[in-house]
Amino acid sequence: MRVGAVAVALVVFAAASARPARAQFSFDARRIGMGGVSLSRDGNVRRFNPAYGAVKNRRDVGGPKFSIPVPLGLIKFFHDHPINQLGHDSTFDPHSPAFNPVALLNTVFNPPIFYEVKAAPTPTNDVEFTIGRNAFVIDLGAANVLIPEEEFGLGSTSRPAGVQFGVAGFKIGVMGFMQYDVGFTLDSALRAVLRDADSVRPATTYSVLGDGVVQAGFAPTLGYAGRLTKGAGGDDSDDGVYLGAAVHWYMGATYARGRGPAGFTTGTPVLGAVPAGLLDDTVYTSNKPFGQGVGGDVGIVWISGPFEAGVGVNDIGAELTWKDTKVQRVLYVAAGDSLRTTLLQNHVESTTKLPITYIANAALRMGTGTTVGGDVVNSGRGTVIHVGAEQRMGPFALRGGVSRDQRKKMQFGWGGGLRLGPIGLDVGFWTHSNSFATQRGITMATSISVY
Amino acid sequence: MRATASALIVVGALFSAACGEGRAIFNVDVLSFIQPSGKDTIRYNLATALAVSADSFITPQKVSLPPGLGKSSVDSVSVTAAAVIENTTGTGSLQFQVYFAKDSANVYTTTPYITANGTISGTQPSTVPLLPPTSVALSDSVFNTDVLWVGVHAGISKNAGADLVGRVRLTTLSLRVVLKDKIF
Question: Which end of chain A lies in a sparser environment, N or C, as judged by fewer CB atoms within 10 Å?
Answer without folding.
Answer: N
